[in-house]
Amino acid sequence: MMKVIKLQPISIIPILIIMLFGSATTLAYAQNPSLSKTYSNAMCGLSINYPDNWVVEESNMKFGNLFDMAEIKPNTPDGFKNTVALEAQGISIYPDKSIEGIAEFMEFYHAPDMGDTIIQSNRIDIPGTPAHEIVYEYMTSKGDIWKDKEVYIPSENTLYVIRYNTVGLDYYDKYSSIVDDMIQSVKVDGRVC
Fold this sequence. Notes:
By secondary structure, the chain is an alpha+beta fold. It has a single domain (34-188), classed as 3-Layer(aba) Sandwich (Protein Transport Mog1p, Chain A). Helix content is 24%, strand content 42%. The chain has helices at 13-31, 99-109, 169-184; strands at 37-41, 46-50, 54-63, 66-74, 82-90, 116-126, 129-139, 145-155, 158-166, 187-188. The chain has a seven-stranded antiparallel beta sheet. The chain is globular.
């Protein structure tokens, strides 16, 4: 007589979980390309690394005590909807140039009565440099909600500002982790421009 062996059904769920996790990991690496290019502004003493598939539009224009260095954005059809603006401001007249003083002033500037909703406001450390980051949302005149991030790096009489501008909540998340990596690559020397 032949012996019948009953096989237990194999659950496909663990296999699917492994496949999905592996795909998500691959996707995460694909979304964060290496920061193989460097933008440097000798006039203001700032450098930042960015992906090779992004482009720089340099402006080097001064408006009062604000110096607009450049914008860096993805080289894609929707790249204009996600820009990293680089600015430097003279802060010699600021009463408190500490990171805490700058944070307090910028939180006031982005207060709800100014039309913004602060989502996050915290101190961050860029290697060797203290900084403050504010993430906020605001409503446009058309009723759309946009989300931006600003990072403030005070250095003697200059306040460096890295501003991640987007045209909507969906666009913010699209490049946020790449922008965070870019911010961590910033180097400043405190030059007044």
